[in-house]
């Protein structure tokens, strides 16, 4: 690990994060994210270039619009920082390797989904379709053992969630099903672990949200963020988790 390279990747991640914010907010509304300028959601004033520096601008403006002084969502700097941290962590974990490329792809997809699922409860199809060929190329270059584990992971995840949707009539949606199938290409058989971890995290977080009355029983909680958390955990620490878990039973 090299401190300078890690710092550069961290800053690069923060810059990517500010782009992912825009994609996550505009893609579900079918707005273009390449041409139109960022505007204040309250007063619609275009945001000046000097106020578009990730994280810094938010701190300098104390989280308020320069023009109308309305609060800017803390989700913006949170997402930027999160992307920076996860990019840097990917490098620390994998160095310059094909696994690092996979981690960057997974983190990018994750962060965009986090934004769009938290704000609109939508995992956009166009986003999944964008990442589909990238995950396939990655697994052609660095196949799992056996190579068809990717295929079984994708199809298995799709059928499993389809069955759950049929039985439970809610909880999970079509977006979750497609997301898990996409991740199946990356994870292969380990997609089972992603699935179980996501339901575990989902249950724990939902209980916490209900107990603290942050949400009520009728309010739907988006499931995408739980899949994302489970996927990141499995990608970075799946083997260690599995070892620890089996250690509980077999030693
Ligand atoms: Zn404003």
Automatic annotation (TrEMBL):
Ranges that cross the membrane: 6-23, 74-94, 100-120, 127-142, 148-167, 179-211, 223-242
Record bears the keyword Membrane: yes
A molecular function (GO) term: hydrolase activity
Keywords: Cell membrane, Hydrolase, Membrane, Transmembrane, Transmembrane helix
InterPro entries in alphabetical order: Prepilin_IV_endopep_pep (IPR000045), Prepilin_pept_A24_N (IPR010627), Prepilin_peptidase/N-MTase (IPR050882)
Domain of life assignment: Bacteria
Record-annotated Prepilin type IV endopeptidase peptidase domain positions: 104-207
Membrane-related topology note: Multi-pass membrane protein
E.C. designation(s): 3.4.23.-
Enzyme class (EC, first level): hydrolase
Prepilin peptidase A24 N-terminal domain segment(s): 11-94
Gene3D superfamilies, per database record: 1.20.120.1220
Family: Belongs to the peptidase A24 family.
Protein name, per record: Prepilin peptidase
Origin organism lineage: Bacteria, Bacillati, Bacillota, Bacilli, Bacillales
């Amino acid at each position: 690990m090299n401190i300078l390279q890690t710092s550069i990747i961290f800053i690069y991640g923060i810059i990517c994060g500010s782009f992912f914010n825009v994609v996550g907010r505009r893609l579900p509304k079918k707005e273009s994210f390449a041409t139109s300028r960022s505007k204040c959601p309250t007063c619609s004033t275009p945001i000046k270039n000097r106020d578009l520096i990730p994280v810094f601008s938010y701190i300098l403006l104390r989280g308020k619009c320069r023009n109308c002084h309305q609060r800017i969502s803390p989700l913006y700097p949170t997402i930027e920082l999160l992307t920076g941290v996860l990019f840097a962590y990917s490098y620390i974990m994998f160095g310059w390797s094909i696994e690092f490329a996979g981690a960057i792809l997974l983190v990018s997809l994750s962060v965009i989904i986090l934004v769009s699922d938290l704000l609109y409860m939508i995992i956009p199809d166009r986003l999944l379709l964008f990442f589909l060929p990238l995950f396939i190329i990655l697994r052609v270059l660095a196949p799992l053992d056996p190579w068809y584990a990717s295929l079984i992971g994708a199809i298995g995840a799709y059928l499993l969630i389809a069955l759950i949707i049929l039985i439970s009539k809610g909880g999970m949606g079509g977006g979750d099903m497609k997301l898990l199938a996409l991740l199946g290409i990356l994870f292969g058989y380990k997609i089972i672990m992603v699935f179980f971890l996501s339901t575990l995290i989902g249950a724990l977080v939902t209980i916490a949200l209900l107990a603290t009355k942050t949400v009520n029983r009728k309010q739907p909680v988006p499931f995408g963020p739980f899949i994302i958390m489970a996927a990141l955990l499995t990608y970075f620490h799946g083997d260690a988790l599995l070892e620890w878990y089996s250690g509980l039973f077999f030693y």
